[in-house]
User: Which sequence fits this backbone?
């Protein structure tokens, strides 16, 4: 337990492997309710693979992943499905159906998994788009909007079923600095207004320091986690040279980045 915060996801003794090839071992960390939790590390360390384990796409070679105390991989199928229904996943590209309007993209999971009327589904789709700043874009197709808007539309779709946890895979990839900043601000607004737990895979320093309050650092060489905690505190206090090099990037961290995180 971290103060009075309740654990939302607990990872214990997790080993990730592809056959005999071990990618990461001995992973152990806690994601608390309301965290913006950052999965970070250098290229090839297994960040996206860890995300796939957390959303139930990859089976652990060893260890446990618990959601509110329930071991996902030991749960009955119905209970596992219930846990998964509480996930919202936002992929790098937005992963929208190009032949559907934004409203139709958001309506798709509601049509598939609820008994709501078409009118109610339409109202929910409009509400979700409004939450991400896309009110009035219901009838637009993905090809008609910018990359930043597409990311926000993907977020609106991920929120369609009111998930308890939002998972982001490199949300700032391909975005210009202004669009990236706006997306970071939106992530914090959603966390604060809706009380969601948010897990983000990213290597972008500005985003890490602007939104993250908890993290795990994976190392490809050691094949395990070498740090965890608030990224700002890791930058300040962690003595591991690999972590320090990543979080400062040889002087890349600047007064401009610091000014952003203090806004």
Assistant:
């Amino acid at each position: 337990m971290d103060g009075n915060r309740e654990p939302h996801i607990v990872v214990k003794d997790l080993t990730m492997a592809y056959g005999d090839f071990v990618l990461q071992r001995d992973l152990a960390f806690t994601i608390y309710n309301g965290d913006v939790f950052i999965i970070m590390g250098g290229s090839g360390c297994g960040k996206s693979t860890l995300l796939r384990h957390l959303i139930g796409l990859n089976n652990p070679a060893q260890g446990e992943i618990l959601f509110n105390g329930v071991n996902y991989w030991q749960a009955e199928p119905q209970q596992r499905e219930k846990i998964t229904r509480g996930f919202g996943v936002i992929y790098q590209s937005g992963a929208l159906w190009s032949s559907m309007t934004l409203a139709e993209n958001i309506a798709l999971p509601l049509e598939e998994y609820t008994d709501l009327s078409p009118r109610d589904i339409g109202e929910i789709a409009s509400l979700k788009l409004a939450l991400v700043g896309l009110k009035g874009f219901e009838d637009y197709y993905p090809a008609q909007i910018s990359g930043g808007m597409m990311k926000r539309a993907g977020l609106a779709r991920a929120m369609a079923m009111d998930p308890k946890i939002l998972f982001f895979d490199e949300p700032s990839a391909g975005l210009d600095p202004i669009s990236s900043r706006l997306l970071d601000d939106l992530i914090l607004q959603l966390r604060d207004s809706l009380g969601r737990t948010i897990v983000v895979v990213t290597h972008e320093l500005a985003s890490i320091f602007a939104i993250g309050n908890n993290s795990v650092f994976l190392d490809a060489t050691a094949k395990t986690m070498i740090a965890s905690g608030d990224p700002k505190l890791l930058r300040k206090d962690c003595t591991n040279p690999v972590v320090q090099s990543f979080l400062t990037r040889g002087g890349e961290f600047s007064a401009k980045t610091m000014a952003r995180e203090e806004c």
Summary: Residues 7-86+164-262 form a domain with the Rossmann fold fold (CATH 3.40.50.300).
